[in-house]
Amino acid sequence: MLRSTHVSWGAVNSTLSWVAKVASGKTAQVGGITAVSAGMARAMTMGMSKASGQMINSLMGSRNYFVLAETAEERTNQNTHANLVRLASAYRTCGHAAARLDPLGLSVVPREDIPELDPAHYGLEVEGAAGEQVVSTLGLVFMPDGAGGFKSEATVKDVVAHLQAAFTGDIGAELHVPDAVERRWLTERVEAMAGGTQPAALVDASKRTELAKLLVESEGFDNFMQKKFAFVKRYGLEGAEAMLVALEGMFEASTANSISDMTIVMPHRGRLNFLTGLLKTDPALIFGKLKGKSEIPEGIRGSGDVLSHLAVSTDLPYAGGARVESGSELHVSLIHNPSHLEHANPVALGKVRSRQRELGPSAMCLMLHGDAAFAGQGVIQESFMMSSLPSYSTAGTVHLIVNNQLGFTASHADYRSSRYSSDVGKVVCTPVLHVNGENPEAVYAASQLAVDFRAKFHRDIIVDMVAYRRRGHNELDEPAFTQPLMYEAIRKRESLPKMYSAKLADEGVADPEIITASAAAAEAKLEERLAAAESPDYTPPANHLGGKWAEFKQTDDATVPVETGVSLETLRAIGKASVSPRMKKLDAGDGLDWATAESLAWGSLLADGYDVRISGQDVGRGTFSHRHVYLYDQGSSSRVVPLNDIGVDGQGTLHIANSSLSEMAVLGFEYGFAMDDPKTLVMWEAQFGDFANGAQTIFDQFIASGEQKWLRQNGLVTMLPHGFDGAGPEHSSARIERFLQLCDGDIKCTSKDPNMFVINPTTPANYFHALRRQMVRDFRKPLIIISPKTLLRLRECTSSLTDMAEGTAFQPVFDDVSIEDKAAVDRVLLCSGKIYYDLVKRRDEAGLTDSTAIIRLEELHPFPLDAMASILDSYSRADNYVWVQEEPANNGAWRYVDPRLRQIISSRKHLSYAGRPPMAAVAVAHAATHKAEIEAFMSKAFAL
Ligand SMILES: Cc1ncc(C[n+]2csc(CCOP(=O)(O)OP(=O)(O)O)c2C)c(N)n1
Ligand SMILES: [Mg+2]
């Protein structure tokens, strides 16, 4: 195995090891902000090579690139052999187009068809005496010398043959990397692999035998499943078994690079092979499910997920760069995912980011992709675009595309416009290694190279393993309906496991009996585990609430109030880390606005040792310029976060994560972060609530249903600015109705274990309590906050310090404290959110302060039935109840609260609706109509 490099990059290495340190998170926190993440530090790395290089682009933000000057000797040699340089350059840039990537041979382009790859194109003669001329290879090519280094000279003919092997063999490299240091490193390593044309030089004999066993076992598993469960969709790996070889190579290379913690996200294809093969998951778990049993142990509430979404967290037997008999230096967790291809990717990234706070770059993300999904799903682009951002970088992801050249039944001509499925990675200049999936040594070596690259440069890299799919999209499908020629070729093709075993036997590398014996043993184990799964005694293992989650539990009653108040002394101390206008109000103890309450909630949690992460577009400032949780030195542009210095030993860290302009990937990322760490208050704020539907998949498949399906609790807070202030059809509605529809509470409100909380708080203090409540409970639930816009600065919408003091808590319903004589009330208005303040104003104007009460529903889900009932009961003479909302009747909370309120309000009394009529667009864009609508529903509400 060639791992050494031609030249010493000592300076670069030492800089990069520093990058490794700062990318780890906490050490990098300057005033609470991760000042230097991998992405930013990379730019600094580039800065350090400035002396020897030339900056070629200064318009790329923090990601500048430099051309590293070659040594004078290299340049002289390049000038002497300018035509060879041109040829080498052509192979390096377009050799991949002629590489033998497709095992089926259907889409291989002959080298002769690409003029740039013909030496004659540059006036080079390869045959005869000219070809025998010996040249210095310095600065030209990197030809392995067989001893871990590179040859210093070679004949022209050999140089050409080397280029042809390296770039048009079984590996096609796309090294479109602007950074010269990376490009050179990659070039050396790629050329050292010689395109997989000399397999024995890449992988030693005993390892080749191990690889053969892996392949054969995978085939054995698929055959076993086909025999025992012929009518199950298992998304087998037949045709792409080398996926396991790639993963084996990656696991080994990880431990060679001190990567100890790997989060893996993958789709359906070959997942069961991976689980039962490399991940050593008990096959009984799979068989049990197929026999109708649950993967969730008895006594634990949860409904489970389909077979191809099973997840596992385990220690694997790899250490020091190799597979070992015992001991482990590698922990992996294959995370849960929904069917929505690629959408779990940012979740995995968020999880890795959280882990990197302790582990640094030794926590790594590995993503597997299908070729069609990788090309088609927008979340891929969003994730790439986050890869170097200060608050989202994870020091590089290794991507493995299991490219079976089909997506469902579609061929690439139908499913992608780009040449390669991997082309989307080019948005951040991700290097790509395309590799023929029938060359296990090439797959193994390319996979190791990928991990080495990520470990060294902390950037993403893609391995695109080209293979095929022996059966249909699932095992019940007939693929030849739509791909007749491809399937004719597949039918004629011997399987890779068989071909490879035979090849090793022919070469005298492996004893075929050893491979057969290993396959037989694997099959015997499958039989035994099938019998075990069929036994009535079989119980699936518990795999939830472990590690950091050990002190948390499935709650029996999430509606029990929790005291979240904080002593006045502490609140005042935290308030000192604030801007002066806020400090004055804190001293007065009154008139505290939304942003102040937020700061106090965060500060008090930080004081208790929790971390806080707030993420979203421009969140540090806040969409409405209200937050200003960090302060910029107007002279130097440097920034400080006062809350990170509140003078409490061991305080937590507030991380302000200004995000890219993405909803889907960023929200997924934060879900992943919160999934990893129950002790960090993770919040995502949409710029306006309506943009949240760009992340609908994350809400539906993860936030709303993740705990029920996977038993994974999650305390993520989502803030959705909402409110009808005449802004028109956009920016008015966070679509409260949709979130309520995702809630699992029944109308009678019997369930005490809601899937998530949805609140619409109307006071800063209630917001304060809601945030604190997220952390002080012994369980975690997602929280959706319908958050305000105009209330941020409304004078009436303030709280006093005593509202947050010890003994106080979140209020799910606010009674009307202005009513002195409840018996005098004949009309009760019920509402949620900012309309409350408008109603109070109207009531005052109409002189109805004695006869009309206004009740605020602060918590929509779980619906506080008992609290609401006791408040409504207290208005004994009221017989008119009106739900008032500013949203149209088909939006807002009306349809959700209606059946619930009716249970409380006796049938003899009247419950009616006052709000906008149903509408398709959520709001009108004409000020006059907007006002007229308000007049209409206000009149109805007060019966004016
Ligand atoms: C977001 C999304 N859209 C559609 C589907 C339905 N679907 C399931 S698998 C599949 C084909 C995927 O092709 P590819 O990514 O190449 O993976 P392969 O099945 O070939 O391994 C499709 C369209 C899905 N699961 N997710
Ligand atoms: Mg595919």
TrEMBL record:
<dbReference type="Pfam" id="PF16870">
    <property type="entry name" value="OxoGdeHyase_C"/>
</dbReference>
<comment type="similarity">
    <text>Belongs to the alpha-ketoglutarate dehydrogenase family.</text>
</comment>
<keyword id="KW-0560">Oxidoreductase</keyword>
<dbReference type="Pfam" id="PF00676">
    <property type="entry name" value="E1_dh"/>
</dbReference>
<dbReference type="GO" id="GO:0030976">
    <property type="term" value="F:thiamine pyrophosphate binding"/>
</dbReference>
<dbReference type="InterPro" id="IPR005475">
    <property type="entry name" value="Transketolase-like_Pyr-bd"/>
</dbReference>
<dbReference type="Pfam" id="PF02779">
    <property type="entry name" value="Transket_pyr"/>
</dbReference>
<protein>
    <submittedName>
        <fullName>Oxoglutarate dehydrogenase (Succinyl-transferring), E1 component</fullName>
    </submittedName>
</protein>
<dbReference type="InterPro" id="IPR029061">
    <property type="entry name" value="THDP-binding"/>
</dbReference>
<dbReference type="InterPro" id="IPR042179">
    <property type="entry name" value="KGD_C_sf"/>
</dbReference>
<keyword id="KW-0786">Thiamine pyrophosphate</keyword>
<dbReference type="InterPro" id="IPR011603">
    <property type="entry name" value="2oxoglutarate_DH_E1"/>
</dbReference>
<feature type="domain" description="Transketolase-like pyrimidine-binding">
    <location>
        <begin position="592"/>
        <end position="794"/>
    </location>
</feature>
<dbReference type="InterPro" id="IPR001017">
    <property type="entry name" value="DH_E1"/>
</dbReference>
<dbReference type="InterPro" id="IPR031717">
    <property type="entry name" value="ODO-1/KGD_C"/>
</dbReference>
<dbReference type="GO" id="GO:0016624">
    <property type="term" value="F:oxidoreductase activity, acting on the aldehyde or oxo group of donors, disulfide as acceptor"/>
</dbReference>
